[in-house]
Automatic annotation (TrEMBL):
SUPFAM superfamilies: Jann2411-like (SSF160904). It comes from the Bacteria. It comes from Streptomyces variabilis. The lineage of its organism: Bacteria, Bacillati, Actinomycetota, Actinomycetes, Kitasatosporales. Residues 147-188 form the Zinc finger CGNR domain. It holds the Pfam family zf-CGNR. InterPro entries: ABATE (IPR010852), ABATE_dom_sf (IPR023286), Znf_CGNR (IPR021005). This is Zinc finger CGNR domain-containing protein.
Length: 195
């Protein structure tokens, strides 16, 4: 995918179990936040804003800010204890200070209450929400103990394993799990043809 093209929402992943880990997943297998439109789709898909929230005011500085946060999450999540963790942690803590977008309940078309934001969400408020999610993940011993690295070949995706028995091996059964099953089948077939 060329940088600057719109990423279709189906290409974005929201299966890691945490918003901050979903942001990390936007770098695999290539840059998924290649345009402001792709970032808008990610913000909505990640649940940072209710569906239908206008984000027309987002500009390229938003891309830079979200990518910067993502770069600071890498050593905190994937390489705890690395030398870059100190500066990364300081920056994530700093970003987490921003107030989140203010929600409100309003009557929907059918009269039931729906969630809307008090006004257009600002970049810093949305970045702050993702940074706070990272702080929550990093400081919750149970959640932190459930963080896993995908066992798929060359897959850097990190996810929270909430499966029964904590035996989840792949970021996605449909993506990496399917690739592993296909590779295993091919190995068995090749072994049988050589025999």
């Amino acid at each position: 995918m060329a940088l600057g093209t719109v990423t279709a929402s189906y290409e974005l992943r929201f299966d890691t179990g945490r918003v901050c880990l979903d942001l990390l997943a936007t770098a695999h297998p290539g840059e998924r936040l290649g345009s402001v439109d792709a970032l808008r789709a990610w913000i909505t898909g990640a649940g940072l804003v209710p569906d239908g929230t206008p984000l027309a005011h987002a500009d390229p500085s938003w891309l830079d800010a979200f990518r910067e946060l993502r770069s600071h999450l890498v050593p905190l999540v994937r390489a705890p204890g690395s030398p870059s963790q100190g500066p990364a942690l300081a920056r994530v803590n700093d970003l987490a200070r921003s107030a989140p977008p203010a929600p409100r309940a309003v009557p929907g078309a059918d009269g039931t209450l729906v969630r809307r934001l008090d006004g257009p969400p600002g970049r810093d408020a949305l970045i702050g929400a993702v940074a706070r999610d990272a702080v929550d993940l990093l400081t919750d011993p149970a959640a932190r103990a459930s963080v896993r690295q995908c066992e798929g070949d060359n897959c850097p995706i990190v996810y929270v394993d909430t499966s029964r028995g904590r035996r989840r091996r792949w970021c996605s059964s449909e993506v990496c799990g399917n690739r592993e099953r296909v590779a295993r089948h091919r190995r068995r077939t090749a072994a049988l043809t050589r025999a």
